[in-house]
Amino acid sequence: MILRRALPLLLATPATAIAPISAARGQGRGVPPREAYRWRVMRQGSAIGTHNVTFTQRGEEVVALSDVTITPSFLGVVVYRYEHRYSEVTRGGRFVSVASRLNRNGTIVEVEARAGANGVEVQGPEGVLRLPSGAVPLSWWEPQRFGGQVPLFGTSHGRPFDLRWAREALPGGGTRWRTAGEIEAVLDYDASGRWVGYSVRGDDGVTVSYAPA
């Protein structure tokens, strides 16, 4: 295995049609458009995949679509396949639902979760889990969820995460988050809260990092 739970982000296309968030400009819905993220996934100086995150407006809801594809190759032959795709819906900044699909070398894992009046119900490979109100998926573009302030669960397995967090200031008003435990990663954000850097330790001890596409 090349990655150590390296990219716990998925995308499953919503069943209903959604309009591009850029088309929502000027409609008075009070939800500003968000700029997409487009990354190259790098390992030892070579690009091994991509991670794209886009945002769309659907009435009062925002849908984040995350698509990770990692296919390192040797002599032109793909030696590992990791496809992690998910859709997360928020309303007024609050988590509503998520649907995900992970293909790890042909092993498929699907997870769905929805917030309700009595907490968050997660349907995953271990059956139905009921998490406390306020539980949200670990989505790297939402740093306000970090630091242990809210319960986090993984979209690649549906279970709550056990993570330790450390925060430090960066020049220019940015923030660096370090996480240890199930995921050992470093994440950078600029002064506006935009995600600008990511690296994670793989199973084999080699660091996987992101570079702008």
Describe the structure.
The chain has a domain at 19-162. The protein contains no helices and 18 strands. The relative contact order is 0.18. Strands 1, 2, 3, 4, 7, 8, 9, 10, 11, 14, 15, 16, 17 and 18 form a 14-stranded antiparallel β-sheet that branches. A hairpin with a 3-residue loop joins β15 (175-181) and β16. By secondary structure, it is mainly β.
Tell me the fraction of residues in β-strands, as a range. Answer: over 45%
What composes the largest sheet? 14 strands, antiparallel
Average pLDDT taken over every residue = 85
Ranges where pLDDT stays below 50 over 5 or more residues in a row are 1-31
Outline: globular
Nearest-angstrom radius of gyration? 17 Å
* Number of discrete helical segments: 0
Strand tally is 18
What is the element string, with H for helices and E for strands? Answer: EEEEEEEEEEEEEEEEEE
Quote the distance from N terminus to C terminus.
Answer: 25 Å
SS-based structural class? Answer: mainly beta
- Secondary structure: helix percent: under 10%
